[in-house]
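Reviewers of the previous submission asked for a worked example of the structure-prediction workflow described in the proposal, so we include one complete record here. The input consisted solely of the amino acid sequence. No template or homolog information was supplied to the procedure at any stage.
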Amino acid sequence: MRPLQFGITCFEQGRVQPGYVVFQPAGGTDCYLLGERGDFAHHWRLPGKGSYGQILESGNLLTTHKQQKAIKLPASGGRLVELNTSGEIVWDHIDIFQHHDCCPAPNGNIVYLAWELTPTKEAKRVKGGLPDSEHEDGGVYEDVLREVNRDGEIVWEWRIVEHFSYKKYPLRSDSTRHEYAHANTCHVQRDGNILVSFRNLDLIILVNRQTGEIDWEMQDRSWGGQHDCQRLDNGNIILFANGSDQPTPEYSSILEIDPVSKQIVWQYKGSPPFTFFSPRVSGVQRLENGNTFICEGVSGRLFEITSLGEIVWEYVSPFYNDVPPWGSSNQIFRARKYSKNDPRLTTLL
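From that input alone, the workflow returned the following structure tokens.
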């Protein structure tokens, strides 16, 4: 069902965090810097079909793109590109195994998600899933974290096969064995350690960048395939709980979790709950003024709420592209909002 209205549908001046939103319509070749009144302050023409863009400290745009030879799995990419304000490519890295997410590290390198193929004979350690449903490439794809420098050199790598408890975290019985875990987020913290989200396991972990060990983990099947976990300044973790594949009525929620007690200390749901639901993709971000910025990805809806859950800004994307296997869609994988005084915007405004 198409939305009844596109563009800005709500704007309460004085309650909104002043700033600009970077969003990249899924399956398209454009990325936009969106003003709070619906104006486009900047526009990048991309060198290929992309899914996610973010602004680096330099003011350049880092984006992910689909490569023709990329692995045949959902959210495969294969290429990381950095563009300057004029849209010129200043850095380019190709890895046909790259998928979903990437994130700048404190040292200026880029950490990204990738896959590696475990041959069928060796993949018996992956528990669960539908029998004899391995990938057509001849095995099970498993997740890898990779860190690449400006020269295109892989300087660090973390492989799930070396650190994971497969018996503890089996695949759902109705899942194919095309891939294991399905990582969709790699959030590099200020200390260099990395939060990773595994959608198909309803699991997030904290990988120690120095030791490679898993310092912390939490699983909750009620998340229903979460996205975009991040560490907040107060030490808590925020995430977008998609709420899909539930035995109860399905709806999405935003959760802020105390990592010590593993208790929810703040949450947002729609009112009524079914009015906020994105079974896949999507993201969340805590803003400087305490508001929360949300990307309800499947419906192409971006909105901002107060700590009390009041919607003070909303935008619905009018940009439709072919997004296999879903067809024509205004889907947005993730979006980010930047405060008006953010120095990263200096060269763009």
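The chain is about 0% helix and 45% strand. We consider this example representative of the routine output the project will generate in years two and three.
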